[in-house]
Amino acid sequence: xxxxxxxxxxxxxxxxxxxxxxxxxxxxxxxxxxxxxxxxxxxxxxxxxxxxxxxxxxxxxxxxxxxxxxxxxxxxxxxxxxxxxxxxxxxxxxxxxxxxxxxxxxxxxxxxxxxxxxxxxxxxxxxxxxxxxxxxxxxxxxxxxxxxxxxxxxxxxxxxxxxxxxxxxxxxxxxxxxxxxxxxxxxxxxxxxxxxxxxxxxxxxxxxxxxxxxxxxxxxxxxxxxxxxxxxxxxxxxxxxxxxxxxxxxxxxxxxxxxxxxxxxxxxxxxxxxxxxxxxxxxxxxxxxxxxxxxxxxxxxxxxxxxxxxxxxxxxxxxxxxxxxxxxxxxxxxxxxxxxxxxxxxxxxxxxxxxxxxxxxxxxxxxxxxxxxxxxxxxxxxxxxxxxxxxxxxxxxxxxx
Length: 401
Ligand code: GCO
Ligand code: MG
Prior knowledge:
CATH superfamily of the largest domain: Enolase-like C-terminal domain
Distance between the termini: 52 Å
Shape: globular
Helix content: 25-40%
Mean pLDDT: 97
Strand content: 15-25%
CATH topology of the largest domain: TIM Barrel
Largest sheet: 8 strands, parallel, barrel
Structural class: alpha/beta
Strand order of the largest sheet: 4-5-7-8-9-10-11-12
Bound molecules: D-gluconic acid, magnesium ion
CATH architecture of the largest domain: Alpha-Beta Barrel
């Protein structure tokens, strides 16, 4: 007889930062987990799942993953968006975890088996100054990283993305405020990469995240100015809503572009991919509808020579990293995986079998996604409201963080 879902619950915890986890149990005694963390808006997804999705899961056959996905996507009527797609992703990953455990196989085997044994990843070298950032870069290279993102403080600016100087005006219960001046940044960025390339040598892959801050022509200027330093990618040069902007950027630079960490569906990625406006698609398991949907995005991307570069910041839980590595191991057009180390307390709550070695991430061989969740340990780390920063131009205008 077909198995059925007997229980599903949402657990919110904060081992160093907030994570939302969906736990699904079946009559056959299997447990699957899915990450439902949407940084800064965690409770919206938790409520979406607990109030609206969990009641529909009880009694369903956990093996019917595609049907569950369609049921939640079409059935909501209100399609797409980060909250809905993160909730669907949590269910989807938990069901893939269950299916792989039922088969006694690591998930990548169910996805077609290994296309590769290890996944190239990149770490984050950050510094308040160029010297500090370049020292961090050298440390990462010494630890074996072959690809390193580098971000540094811009002289004259206080608190920018990647560099966490204190916010002088801070009310700690509200979003911190950063400051931004594009002209200063555009003068500074080539100097950062000149220093980085000099210290790193030609072989290390260098990456950079402009974090949605530039206007189209500024993005074109930056891409062109960074060409001598041979970047692996330049990320989020412009906000992704205006995808036509990238046609202009593409006409002026061959610096590879990566976009998509805030995208949730294949429709959001469609023009970026089919018009070949990007080289790497950053959509990720947790925010783009789980394995089931990300596979569709990756398949579309493969047709156009676009590779994956899944978002992997520390606000995506170790559950997402487990799923992402099985996904990356199986698909033909894997590019790179972002790897940001989780807070040490996270290890008390989540146990995982994936590991970093020699510049690569290696997925494990245990059945399922290879991550377990200790609910008793999670209870020791209660949820604490937290926000992403906001950002203002130096004249006070609210800008993209
Ligand atoms: C990245 C991202 C992150 C995001 C964060 C939002 O490239 O890793 O831009 O740093 O800002 O994940 O929650
Ligand atoms: Mg980013």
